[in-house]
Amino acid sequence: MFHVFQYQHLRLITQSSLSSMCLKLMLSRPVAFAQIWKSWFSSHTLLGKKNVILMGPPGAGKTTIGRIVGQKLDCPVIDIDDDVLETTWNMSVSEKLQSVGYEQFLEEEGKALMKFSASGSVISLSGSNPMHAAGMQHIKKNGIVVYLDVPTTVIMGRLQSKGVDRIVGLSPGISLRDVLQFRKQFYKRWFDIRVLCGGDVAAEVVAEKVLDAVKRHQDSELETFISTRSSRSGGNTEDSNKLYFSDVVTQGLALDGGLFVPERGLPKFTAEEWQGLIEATYTERAQVILERCIHPADIPASKLAEIIEAAYGENFSCSKVAPVRHLAGNQFLLELFHGPTASFKDFALQLVPHLFAYCIPRSCNYLILVATSGDTGSAVLDGFSRLHDTDKQRIALVNFFPEDGVSPIQKSQMIGCQKENAWSVGVKSDFDFCQTAIKQIFTNSDFTGFLTVEYGTALAAANSINWARLLPQIVYHASAYLDLVHQGIISFGNPVDICIPTGNFGNMLAAFYAKMMGIPIRKCICASNENNVLTDFIRTGVYDLRGRKLISSFSPAVDILKSSNLERYLHLIGNEDGQLVTQLFNQLENQGHFQLREDLLRKLQQDLVAGWCSDEDCLAAIHSVYSTTGYILDTHTAVAKVVADRLQDRTCPIIISSTAHYSKFAPAILRALRIAEINQNPLSQLHLLSSYSALPPIHWGLLETLKKTGNGDHQVCAADMSVLMSHIETLIQNHFM
After folding, report:
1. CA distance 464 to 462
2. For the segment 330-369, what is each residue's pLDDT rounded down to a tens digit?
3. Under the phi-then-psi rule, with left for phi > 0, alpha for psi from -120 to 50, and beta for the rest, what region is 5?
4. pLDDT digit string (tens) for 104-163?
5. Contacting residues for 580 by C-beta, under 8 A, at least 6 apart
6. Among residues 159, 265, 272, 156, which one has the least CA distance to residue 209?
7. Domains, the chain, ordered by start
8. N6-(pyridoxal phosphate)lysine occurs at which residues (predicted)?
């Protein structure tokens, strides 16, 4: 067996064996001694007996980077090609490949890897090692596998410049690109952490990134969460226990009534790292971004890959998942309606149920509470209904929506998406009541404690107040920018503006987070309908609900007066001052208004601009765009289009978030298209719209849902807290008992 014994270059020095030389060094040059001690301690604490295993395609720089990392850690460096394979075979790797052929080479390479053992070392794998499952299982047992992820075009350029014409798998009729793309599936299967490596990044820089990634992997203490309303005490002022991603996914709302945010902020990507994702698919971009936002101790990279594939692999009707379409002039549409329930909510709610099911303890049942102004309801019902049967037995969901505050098709969809573990309840009030009621239920410790003790059931949230809901939204904003670069519309680094129809501020906040992570977004434009409290706030710094009544509009998803995620944004620009946030939102709750300080208003207005649109202008925009382009906007996208037209300066592209498919709002769309007689049956309305042969076509999932279910039964309750709590208890009894 090929074995490398771990050796120490320094040893722990006890008082009894302290040499006079070391003692002199400590006394005469304490800084130098401290640096030597710190270097030794950090490297050996980082590795222990584990290996750092570098994996990636040929040309990724594994050998060079491995040597640098080994020098920095002062530990043995082993190159599998040079130190193991060629030593074992007594011939070069290329000679071996030529003599035995592709398949036999992989087998013999894997056998050699299985006989190899090392500890406390840096190991550079061959490009084809990951293709042998047993060999990788063996070496991974005692190591952290680091994937050097280099764009395929960069690898091809490097190999061609070196004159490399033979790699494992290359044969007549199979291109080098095909071989490299084929291998990616094996690299993705085995890595623990990924390091993005651009084309012009120096090996020294990559080596530092490897060390940083390994340190992150070893220390989950770095990625904790706090409440927007607390001091840095792990999420509430009464409990000093730290909270991690898996905790905030299941808990939803902080005990002090605040919202969870990462204590150290979001990860930053370099320009080179973003550029390395230009050629990537949507799911590949999602994987890379979410790996940086979710610590592997919470969800390992391999499991996260499974979850992302389950969410986006087959559930979206467009292969690009979130395509960007040119509308007119400098305006582009980010189409976010290709998911199963035809709105942007699908991006989060096809993913979050799987994250939730993975993170929750197996010893408890969970009831998810959701309030919706329209699109969230069907999306969350569909998402949780796709869980495995064993997970459905321990996870149920109840969706509260304003009984008379959503479109007829949205209502039919929410009723039709009910499953054995998911129900819809209409409330005789508006969305703000539903959302406020859920927050109050979560902070009612007597009620939540009773449910836990009596029924073994905990409550959780899946609204955009849940941190996990925001992460997938960051992905599509970043992906839209990268798509414009890939299409040659802009070069990386050129700014874009983003315009979003905004109610609860979650989508807007996600765009701002993408900007913080390195996407060159210039202005985030907030588009409101006649419920324009956010527009007034962004313009004046005064959030004032006094005398305001919710107005029903043709864009019901933004018929919202209390924007929950605004709290996270104010916490951010307020230097994470939990006391300030508490003061502002307590004043809003008790007095119906608050006002920002002038310095915070100036900060806000550097990031955000806002406008609003009437129903009349919304319908006119739908008609105008259809007449000139043959494309039908939904009512929310039309609101954003009107505001974008008014506020953009046309000096850069503007990406308008198309947050829902027009099929969901058929009566308003038919009115905009100036149809005189509109049948009240939702299915008939969709058939009429389909006769226009417009772009995009009628949404397949929505049409199928309405065909199968029609208007089924659902519960309706009064706008009373005690009634809602009674409904919750009854549902728990029926499902879990």
Report:
1. 7
2. 999 999 999 999 999 999 999 999 999 999 988 889 999 9
3. beta
4. 999 999 999 999 999 999 999 999 999 999 999 999 999 999 999 999 999 998 988 887
5. 570, 574
6. 272
7. 51-218 (3.40.50.300), 311-339+484-504+513-708 (3.40.50.1100)
8. 345
